[in-house]
């Protein structure tokens, strides 16, 4: 339909889902490498990365929101509120700027504080998880967020999932598990490595899988809850997506700043900014850049699709990263990959069948 936003002629909904799948595959590899390729004493601070992520995402969202502010409607002076008068200050950039500030600090902006805190916790847990688990194990366990997201969508958004959709979600999780188990077992076989870097890189960093699994499980809950909460706030009001994103980043700044301030040690300090950016090299910047980009795409996906579709996109990213390994690192396609990938693709197909057209064997109540 003409109202649907498009990129290069394709609906933004699908472009954003595919982009998210590629971004997800890239993030887990780059983030893992950025953490394990150096001994802990020489590694960068995750707290700095989380803070930079929010600062950059918030600034980009602010610029996009500013470019979208409509002309302030001309109302006669005597009918304007004090805020309206401030918005009409005589500089070309002032009116949109102040009008945007008015939107950002709207009375309902506090609603974003909940997903903001949850996302900061999640982004920090992600660093703990990925530093203590191999990429493949991290990815497979993180898929549990498909189920937590569905559960929170039903509880908070009152989405109705037919038994067919629930079944396809379980098959999705199982399919991802099969792909991953095969990926992890093949990653132990000598040169067939799933991640960048030499085997030597992995001996300098000691991993604690129990800690990693604990962190990833907690992150699945915050991911589901924060995503669904953000979707609820976004879809229950007319406020612009980018204004909501700025509000989200603003509320994230406080919890993101706390660990940075807590970690700064006055004893051997060389100044706040030097401490902040210690060991912050190219891989750390690449991690932050991919995260910022992912945050922006996630917001678009939540707006134009929903959190459950986001789960499908990220599962496809696992197949994508496997196929990339086949092309780049000489991986061979095994029967378990074919079974796992077919399960994921069938689950995606079944989930997306319109109600009434679902396979009869699985048919339950009406769809979402
Ligand atoms: O794993 P999951 O899809 O829940 O991760 C969502 C990521 O997207 C988080 O890193 C979060 O900070 C980011 N995000 C964002 N802006 C939004 C929604 C999510 O930056 N509006």
From TrEMBL:
The keyword Zinc does not apply. This is Nucleotide-sugar transporter-domain-containing protein. The keyword Membrane applies. GO terms for molecular function: pyrimidine nucleotide-sugar transmembrane transporter activity. The lineage of its organism: Eukaryota, Fungi, Dikarya, Basidiomycota, Agaricomycotina. Keywords: Membrane, Transmembrane, Transmembrane helix. GO terms for cellular component: Golgi membrane. Its main location: membrane. The chain holds residues 80 to 447 of 547 of the full protein. The chain crosses the membrane at residues 166-183, 212-230, 242-262, 282-304, 311-329. It is a multi-pass membrane protein. It is found in: Membrane.
